[in-house]
Amino acid sequence: MVTTYQNWIGGRWAPARSGGTRENIDPASGELLGIFPRSGAEDVNDAVNAAQQALAAWRAMPGPRRGEILFRAGEVLVRRKEEFAREMTPEMGKVLKETRGDVQEAIDMTYYMAGEGRRCFGQTTPSELPDKFAMCVRQPVGVVAAITPWNFPMAIPAWKIIPALICGNTIVFKPASDTPKSAWNLAKTLEEAGLPPGVLNVVFGSGGEAGTPLVEHPVVDLVSFTGSNEVGRGIALKAAQLGKRLHLEMGGKNAIIIMDDADLNLALDGVIWSAFGTSGQRCTAASRLIVQRGILDELTKRLIARTEALRLGHGLDEGTDVGPVVNHEQLVKIDGYMEVARKEGATIACGGSIANVGALAKGFFFRPTVLTDVKRNMRVAQEEIFGPVIAVIAVDSLEEAIAVNNDVPFGLSTSIYTRDVNQAFRGIEGITTGLLYVNAGTIGAEVHLPFGGTRGTGNGHREAGQAALDTYTEWKTVFVDYSGKLQRAQIDVEAAKP
Ligand code: NAD
For position 178, what pLDDT does the model report? Predict the structure, then answer.
């Protein structure tokens, strides 16, 4: 029996008005997992109107009361973590320990932001005039459109929805078409926690049919988007024309730098986890390995051996190290980069092809791949491949490593392995990504610290941490003059002197 799911609009579950549907498919086996609405502009309009209607009451609710609802949501997520992870692996592909981590990120963010219900600190500061009080308080932006990718099906939606909620915004959420069940599970969690009708609305559908009308809807105040640069830039153009607030989290071309003096075992653990976890489909995945020449041969030899030992399979199987990629389109794109690599003179040292025999025949599997003889300007060293592929680039010095690291159109995450504290700090100083790890891989964000990237990765906003509050609130600066007379800032300053 395959279940048919519905949109959540104004507190009610309903199919798309057109009656259209889309199948949710397991990328490892081709199995049909569920049927979801294929929504269009009219469903988006219903959802945005519901969010607008719910806004006044939600923003008026005291922050601590909003926080209590989120605490209850956190409890539900903890209770259902294993169930949600076991439903996420079949729809997205990544192995169970990673989908457990995905749900855990949602739990962490929910508890963290629930606490913000009693903080959401503003500022007070002296006024330049006597008998005058100055403060800044946060206010919600309004109706938020949350548009998310498929690679972190619950974590990324939670990283947008939960901070937006605690700040008093209402939301229309359009999840990625490939991972609707995890989005549905998150919505059900918030419903069970007692979120009032219309505060969160979920519209399932494609980017073109549901995403575009959502971005363009005049009532939407802020668009918070995570996804590819291509789509993000298009949304940025529209948001600029329509005068909307915009928060963008986009692609990466992350690197691990390994210096001659590094602990190679430690570094290799970090490389395998960062390059091939989630089949390389993380925005923070390591897709370049910048290696100092003294250890190049040894490191490459050991990297190839460890990569070849990785076992492909269904993410629910205990023995699987690397699951499928999310869909056929991604598989073809990754495979296409092998031809690009060959033509540019790189060497495919291992992997480099689609795996489609035996138990893998019905899924979208790509063999974990190491590219060697890569030069810093090759396309495989510059473009986001978003698959289990790492390109090894040799350098002579730390200065060259930093220059190569920074010389890409993205700026999300970098890691540096060295046992020399001076080199580590020179790396911290010179590397210009938004995230930086010393002696750890490129993965490992924590919810209470800002997350995001420089250059083409973002537009200057950050997700998570206190920085998320800046994304989902507007500052209101308040002056209270209790002097009982007209006091003019900048003009009556002399009179205010003792
Ligand atoms: P995508 O850009 O194809 O889609 C992202 C979302 O946008 C989906 O919900 C999609 O339906 C929607 N969409 C597509 N076209 C749209 C349009 N014209 N208007 C409105 N919405 C539209 O990205 P993807 O393939 O789902 O995700 C992979 C990308 O996401 C990679 O580039 C990856 O680096 C990036 N990503 C970035 C971060 C980060 O925090 N920086 C995190 C995860 C993923």
Answer: 97
